[in-house]
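Hey, I'm writing a tutorial for new members on how sequence and structure tokens pair up, and I'd like a real worked example in the thread rather than a made-up one. If someone can provide the structure for the chain below, I'll link this post from the tutorial.
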Amino acid sequence: MNATAAPEVSIVIPVYNEEAILRDSVLELVRGLDAEGRDFELWLAENGSRDRTRELAAELAALDPRVKWFSCPAPNYGAALRMAIEQAAGRFVICEEIDLCDLDFHRRALALLRAGTADLVVGSKAMAGAHDRRPLGRRAATRAYNGLLRVTLGYRGTDTHGLKAFRRAALLPVVARCIVGHDVFASELVIRAQREGVPITEIPVELEEKRAPSIHLARRVPRVLKNLARLMAAIHLGRGAKER
């Protein structure tokens, strides 16, 4: 690839306290992408880690110029994901999770995007054909949350959080209109895209955690509900300022 040319694909991964799996996961992902001849860049969006995640991200970037990273001062998944999307240069963007790195999702999603079947592909953990092997409590929380999105915001899909791939030019204007951060940013992006008529396709994914969640589920619930209320006010009443 010409050093000045933009890559076809940008892979963006928010990372928080991931020193245990970061190095091996990134190196394995890069090997897989190289084996497929993928023209890519990989953004590690560190946010507020208290372990060696920043140091490891810097080391990985020094090993391979296609690996890039930046650091947000506070733990904020949504802010980190937004910044990575805004900095990405690829025609297509894949939002990954460091404990997944699902190359099969990449292949299927990129085929749909290249064919023009969709501008946004959502990897669903809950639709027919998906295999979600997380603990029962986590699976139940996903379904309850998605049900809440359907009732409060009219979402017509089965999942919003996790793996996504999209045509960057089509989604950047949607990203600019998103107002919330943390976990709800990922949902807001998909819901706003749907409401604005962006062609969306869901595909089933297989999910099995490599490690326990970096933030305990019970501690996430109050913040998720608060940001969901802000999103409801913004969409239904036109209220709310962007969170950065």
